[in-house]
Structure formats: structure tokens, C-alpha cells
Automatic annotation (TrEMBL):
SUPFAM superfamilies: Acyl-CoA dehydrogenase C-terminal domain-like (SSF47203), Acyl-CoA dehydrogenase NM domain-like (SSF56645). It comes from the Bacteria. This is Acyl-CoA dehydrogenase. Keywords: FAD, Flavoprotein, Oxidoreductase. Residues 235-376 form the Acyl-CoA dehydrogenase/oxidase C-terminal domain. PROSITE patterns: ACYL_COA_DH_1. Pfam families: Acyl-CoA_dh_1 (PF00441), Acyl-CoA_dh_M (PF02770), Acyl-CoA_dh_N (PF02771). Residues 19-122 form the Acyl-CoA dehydrogenase/oxidase N-terminal domain.
Length: 385
């Protein structure tokens, strides 16, 4: 199988509006090719184009801005389905979602006018640049600077592990200003922006990671999102929360994929005259996958419902959902490999990729150590208020 997705274009039928249409899209255009993309280290252009035709890049944007006004519960279901098929593609959707949502939520009318339709249609792809070589979990340690100059800004610094950085057209960059930390929209073609691809990661290998350096990049005053000094708390918290929600849903997708692969394999594979699925120890593994998938789905849906209702309790619900779903995905991906035996270690079955991708979920959008600290802190506050 080649890197080109040979499935015939079915443009109208491919429009994704809910879980059912997302499932059909993923089963047709993603599942058969995800291992090919993983080995190639990139998602091909024709799939990115198909995602655009399906309206998948930012369906939560209002109609008229390239979106479909999709609610966030449905968006979670769609990202679960994409994550079931390919975590690399889901990662690209996640960071694009973060950029599009941030522009829509905090952009000035002029910024929205300039970017939302392009982002909604997928003509412009976004990437999220927070992490640096010296600052990951501790975002207060970032050293990229944005200095005011001539009414605009001059950006200097290095961002790393930028998902989609090899391909993105627009970077949402967090940089230190005199006042606090600001969020800046930086077009890829701005002079002084350099992109260095990062290859051969453990998981999400097709998500086209890059290190992005900014060397005296001159930006206009309209590059800053939100009033100066305002962004540090609001934009970062809100944007990371939405990214985390997408990762929770994507982790659930991995878990569901492990379940589907394992139950299929356990039905076919025979040992000692019976199918694997008839063995009590294998049944125990499958029943734990079913149980955790159902629990994770409820947690993700609850986080989405609270987002749609505009309730701040969604932050805690999203931490819990991401923590639960990502740890369950790692546990069950390991069991899925176990159920497949040597086949599970080979490139012929998807579970090895699912296992590698699952591990990444415990690190991104707030590592699970940070999630646990945050969940415990919030639980304590809820007890005392
Ligand atoms: C595949 C992939 C894609 C990514 N995509 C992006 C992206 O698009 N944009 C972006 O900005 N970043 C991205 N990242 C970076 C990611 O957000 C960071 O890796 C993550 O925030 C953790 O930071 P770190 O790797 O620097 O680990 P560190 O912060 O150095 O932490 C190392 C370890 O120490 C633990 N730790 C840290 N602080 C504490 C504490 N207080 N108590 C206990 N334990 C602690 C951590 O949990 C971790 O296990 C990506 C990473 C990966 C692997």
C-alpha cells in the first residue's frame, strides 16, 4: 500500500456532522492507511484535503466561518473516532482546533476576519507553540520573548515538539512580553521563522513534529491575541483545556481501537483447540477494556456537556477525563499487544502502533503527573468552598 490514499472521493457523503459520519469517514479514509502513515512519518496531503472536504478541521466554528456550529460533545465524539483510526491525524486536528478556537474566542474582529474562514476550511493549518527545549510542564519557564518595537513586536526564541509544525501555515506562539506572557499569531512565511523537522518519535509518528525558531521575527500590532497582559491566564488555560479534551477523546479512541482489534483477534486465533476469546484470562482482559472504554466515554461526554453549558467545572472534568482515558489507553494497549502475542509485536497488526501512541497521551497536554497534582488541588479546594 502506498502513502496515497486510493479511496475514491465521495465528497458529499464524506461531510462529517456527527459520530456516525465520523466513523464512516475514518473507516474508509483512515483506518486502512494509518500504519502506512506511521511508517512514512507523515499524513499525506490528499488525506489533509479530504479532512477539509469533510469539514473536519474546525466544525465548531460558526457556519459562515468555515464551520458547522458543532457542539463540543459532538466534537469529542468526532475526535474519539479519528483517534480510533489514527492518533497522528487526531493530533493534527487537536492543535488546529486549539488555534482556530483561540482566534474565534479571543481574536479581534480584524483577526477573526483575517483567519477564521481560512482555518475553518483548512486552507490554513494551525500549530500550537508553547513548549521549549528548557520548558515543558513548567510554562513559567518559557524564554521566547516578544519585545514591543515600532508599534509592533519582535519575536525571538525556540519552540519545540510542535505537532504539525512541518506542515502548519500559522503558529500560535506563547512568548514573554514586558507585562506577562502573550499569545501571538505568526505566519510561517514571516522572515526569521525556521522549521526543523523532528523525526522518529516513539508515537504519533505521522504528526509531523518540528522545532520552530524565531530569529528577530517582526510582527505587526495585530499579531497579539487579546489585550496585552491578559493572555497569560485566559488564553493558555482555555486553549490547553480544549486541547486536553481532544486528547482525552483521542485516548478513548485508542482504547476503543484496542478493544476492536483484540476482540477480533481473540475470535480468530485458536490455542489448544479453542478460540482465545473462550479463555477466562483473555475474557478478563476484554471485559476490562469494555468497562474502561464505557467509563472514559462518560467522562469525556461530561466534560463536553459542561463546556457546552459554559460551566467552569469543565476544567476539572477535563483533567479527570484526560487522566483516566490516557492511563486506561496505555494499560489496555499493553494488554492488546499481549493478546496478539508475537503478532502484536509485528508491523502487521495495528496494536503496536496503538501501544506507542497511547504512551504519548500520558505526556501531552499536561503530563499525567501534572494532571494528578491539579486534580488533587482542585478536589481540596472543592472540599473547602
Ligand atoms: C508527540 C508529542 C507532541 C507534542 N506536541 C506539542 C505541541 O504541539 N505544542 C507544544 O507546545 N508542546 C508539544 N509537546 C510537548 C508536551 O506538551 C510536553 O512534552 C509536556 O508538556 C511535558 O513537558 P516536558 O516534556 O518538557 O517534560 P518535563 O516538564 O521536563 O517533565 C519531565 C517529567 O517530570 C514530570 N514532572 C514535571 N513537573 C512535575 C512536578 N511538579 N511533580 C511531579 N512530576 C513532575 C513530568 O510529568 C514528566 O514525567 C508534545 C510532546 C510530544 C511527545
Amino acid at each position: 500500500m502506498t502513502l496515497t490514499d486510493p479511496a475514491p472521493a465521495t465528497r458529499t457523503a464524506d461531510r462529517v456532522t456527527d459520530r456516525t459520519s465520523a466513523r464512516a469517514f475514518v473507516d474508509t479514509h483512515v483506518v486502512p492507511y494509518a500504519d502506512v502513515y506511521d511508517r512514512a512519518g507523515r499524513v499525506p496531503e490528499d488525506l489533509l484535503q479530504r479532512v477539509a472536504e469533510a469539514g473536519l478541521w474546525a466544525p465548531f466554528l460558526p457556519p459562515g466561518s468555515g464551520g458547522a456550529g458543532m457542539d463540543l460533545v459532538t466534537l469529542g465524539e468526532v475526535h474519539e473516532e479519528v483517534g480510533r483510526g489514527c492518533s497522528s491525524l487526531r493530533s493534527l486536528l487537536t492543535v488546529h482546533t486549539m488555534v482556530s478556537w483561540t482566534v474565534q474566542r479571543w481574536g479581534t474582529p480584524a483577526q477573526r476576519e483575517r483567519w477564521t474562514t481560512l482555518l475553518g476550511s483548512g486552507q490554513v493549518l494551525g500549530a500550537f507553540c508553547l513548549s521549549e527545549p528548557g520548558a515543558g510542564s513548567d510554562t513559567s519557564g518559557i524564554t521566547t520573548t516578544a519585545a514591543e518595537s515600532g508599534g509592533g513586536w519582535v519575536l525571538n526564541g525556540v519552540k519545540t515538539w510542535t505537532t504539525g509544525g512541518q506542515r502548519a501555515d500559522l503558529f500560535l506562539v506563547f512568548a514573554r512580553t514586558a507585562a506577562s506572557i502573550g499569545a501571538f499569531l505568526v505566519p510561517r512565511e514571516a522572515p526569521g521563522v525556521r522549521v526543523r523537522p523532528i523525526h522518529d518519535m516513539l508515537g504519533t509518528r505521522a504528526s509531523m513534529l518540528a522545532e520552530i525558531s524565531f530569529d528577530d521575527v517582526v510582527l505587526g500590532p495585530d499579531a497579539l491575541l487579546g489585550p496585552s497582559g491578559f493572555t497569560a491566564g485566559m488564553v493558555l488555560t482555555g486553549t490547553l483545556d480544549l486541547g486536553r479534551y481532544s486528547v482525552a477523546a483521542g485516548s478513548l479512541g485508542i482504547l476503543q481501537a484496542c478493544l476492536e482489534a483484540s476482540s477480533g483477534y481473540a475470535a480468530r486465533r485458536r490455542v489448544g483447540g479453542s478460540a482465545l476469546r473462550e479463555l477466562p484470562l483473555i475474557q478478563a482482559k476484554l471485559s476490562d477494556m469494555v468497562t474502561d472504554a464505557r467509563a472514559a466515554r462518560l467522562l469525556v461526554a461530561e466534560a463536553g456537556r459542561l463546556k457546552d453549558a459554559g460551566e467552569s467545572a469543565t476544567l476539572m472534568a477535563t483533567w479527570v477525563a484526560k487522566y483516566f482515558a490516557s492511563t486506561a489507553a496505555v494499560r489496555h494497549a499493553a494488554e492488546a499487544v499481549q493478546i496478539h502475542g508475537a503478532n502484536g509485536c509485528s508491523p502487521d497488526y495495528p496494536v503496536a502502533r496503538l501501544y506507542r501512541d497511547a504512551k504519548v497521551m500520558e505526556i501531552i497536554e499536561g503530563s499525567n503527573e501534572i494532571q494528578r497534582i491539579t486534580i488533587a488541588g482542585q478536589a481540596e479546594r472543592e472540599k473547602t468552598t
